[in-house]
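Input record (one chain):
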Amino acid sequence: MLTLIAAAGENNELGKDNDLVWHLPDDFKRFKKLTTGHYIIMGRKTFESFQEPLPNRTHVVITRRENYKKEGLVIVHSLERAIELTEDDPQPFVIGGGEIYDQAIDIADKIELTRVHATFDADTFFPEIDENQWKLVAEEFHEKDERHNFAFTYLTYERR
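The corresponding structure, as predicted from the sequence alone:
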């Protein structure tokens, strides 16, 4: 079951200058809980936005750069190849960025989206979720508080 996981603003904003434009500690905890023990598929720029590889996950990085090498990563040159390599994982996750989400949304089975209830200046966006193809099966709202500058909702979609 290929799952897209992302946090996006009201206008599907993902980030700017290869970084998130918000800090939501509870969303980071949820991301860690859901993805730990699984393959995480991402583009090179998304990987390079991390300080270091995320623990207890297998990183599959898609890049056009033929000579790209990094210790501890699985490097591939297409989404199709990334998915082939994850076939032993019952739920690999696509974690970004925008271009990879655009390629994966038509073949994904599930979307775990954190909708951040604000708009942001961004240069990377999550694709539109077509309600004819996706069914909302769970949602959980969280108020803005002392640790979270924005209200947000966890949304789970499954392909119809």
